[in-house]
Design brief:
single chain; alpha/beta; Rossmann fold; N-(1-d-carboxylethyl)-l-norvaline Dehydrogenase, domain 2; 8-stranded mixed β-sheet
């Protein structure tokens, strides 16, 4: 029986803990806040991030990183991109070359580095995989049919991770395009904010489809700069995740766009999200700054950046965006 540690007790980390616990693995779930760890352990439910889902008894929630990763064979990192490097740094004294799986969809602020790059830099680890695709926690935890991808530069690593996570309702495909999978997972969130704005204004299906198409073009252009594969962009990690995030009521990034259309500030929106994180906001800044420096044409990202960080009138931004499609 494999011992698996999960770093991050948000909705996705908790969902994966439940999935792996139900498969019979010995799972330990780390929560940054001690009160949340104790609450999850006492109630066997994460009422803040995944209410209504029972957590198996073989899933132990803890606030101690040492306790959580000690003796584990697989370590899943499920913390927001903003805190990923600092959290991984705290793991260094206890790390013992576990297979490490990143399930965070974002780019590091200031560096525009992918999550697996950050992990590798801090841990010096070569056994790294990434999990991505159209996989909303709410649906996976409800055992609705889902297909996603596990990518790694090492076939053995991706095989071990895919076999550990796969269930009859959660199907996993193995890829070797780590770069493409991570870039797709990050950039689809920018498009989701834009489609949320469009939906918030009631612009309809045609406008939404146009923005999604533009988002796909940017995903492809940005990915090619780093050497991502065309098949990844047009597969589950690309088109699949893009469609799900831009159209789903579960999408946090689409929710942000919808609230922006109501003239709400980011402070107000964050308060309404009750601790949930919309990765598209910091990712927009990271991708915009990188694309500007390297002269990659990204009109959707430009408009999103100007609205989020330069207070551009949101109706003007949508008008400028739709004029391009």
């Amino acid at each position: 029986m494999k011992k698996i540690s999960i770093i991050g007790a948000g909705s996705w980390g908790t969902t994966l803990a439940v999935l792996l616990g139900e498969k019979g693995f010995d799972v330990k779930l780390w929560a940054r806040r001690e009160e949340l760890a104790n609450e999850i352990e006492s109630n066997k439910e994460n009422k803040q991030y995944l209410p209504g889902v029972k957590i198996p008894s073989n899933v132990i929630s803890d606030h101690s990183l040492k306790n959580v990763i000690n003796g584990s064979e697989i370590m899943i990192v499920a913390v927001p991109s903003e805190f990923l490097r600092s959290t991984v740094r705290q793991l260094i004294p206890y790390f013992s070359n576990q297979i490490t799986v990143s399930v965070t969809k974002g780019m590091e602020h200031n560096t525009c580095k992918r999550m697996s790059q950050v992990i590798a830099e801090e841990l010096g680890n070569t056994k790294i995989a990434v999990l991505s695709g159209p996989n909303h926690a709410e649906e996976v935890s409800s055992k609705l049919p889902t297909a996603s991808v596990v990518a790694s530069n090492d076939k053995k690593t991706s095989k071990i991770v895919a076999e550990a996570l796969a269930t009859p309702h959660f199907k996993l495909y193995q890829l070797n395009d780590v770069v493409g999978v991570e870039i797709c997972g990050a950039l689809k969130n920018i498009a989701a904010i834009a489609t949320g704005v469009s939906d918030g204004f009631g612009f309809g299906d045609n406008a939404r489809a146009s923005i999604i198409t533009l988002g796909l073009m940017e995903m492809n252009n940005f990915g090619r700069h780093f050497g991502s594969k065309r098949g990844t962009v047009y597969g589950l990690a690309g088109v699949g995740d893009l469609i799900a995030t831009c159209t789903s009521s579960h999408s946090r990034n689409r929710f942000v766009g919808q609230q922006l259309a109501k003239n709400k500030s980011m402070a107000e929106i964050k308060k309404e999200m009750h601790g949930m994180v919309a990765e598209g906001v910091p990712t927009t800044k990271a991708v915009y700054e990188y694309s500007k420096k390297h002269k990659i044409e990204m009109p959707l990202t430009l408009q999103a950046y100007e609205v989020l960080f330069e207070n551009k009138d949101i109706k003007l931004a949508i008008k400028d965006l739709l004029s391009l499609v």
